[in-house]
Amino acid sequence: MKYDHIPGPPRDSFFLGHSPTFVRIMKKDGIVHNKFLEWAEIYGPVYRINILHYIILGVTCPEATKEILMSPKYPKDRFLYKGLFNLFGQRFFGNGLVTARDHELWYKQRRIMDPAFSSLYLRGLMGTFNERAEKLMEKLSEIADNNTEANMLQLVNCVTLDVIAK
């Protein structure tokens, strides 16, 4: 009842909420995220999703996302955030800026990372970014000329590591 004032699609079931919709989409090998995008277009940038007794808010507005992630007054669900920490038994997001539930820990991490993302600092790195991007383009051209497959994850990881090391 607390979230009923937030617009959202009608529930398929009182008990299951929108779960049957997701099951139908997945059985047809569809993409559930396309449904989220459709609902955002219909119901606005913030909409409600019901799954069993859980309420999930779909947020597509950058300002609202920033407010929700940065403010301590919006509680983060322990079950969901624990799932983001470890996904399928492997470390996924860890306990970083996106998944930190404790605001004090989040604030400490944010203060540590702020200088690295200041516009002045990033502008100073443009030469390095461009140099490494050119190196990546040369490597991709070589791969294209040889008509071989490119492992983009490995290539982008190497570029990222090069920029960090420089």
TrEMBL record:
Return any one Pfam family short name.
p450
Gene3D superfamilies cross-referenced by the UniProt entry: Cytochrome P450
**SUPFAM superfamilies, alphabetically?**
Cytochrome P450
The UniProt entry's sequence similarity note says: Belongs to the cytochrome P450 family.
What PANTHER family would the database entry show?
Answer: CYP46A1 PROTEIN-RELATED (PTHR24293:SF0), CYTOCHROME P450 FAMILY 46 SUBFAMILY A (PTHR24293)
Protein name stated in the entry: Cytochrome P450
Q: Which organism is it from?
A: Goodea atripinnis
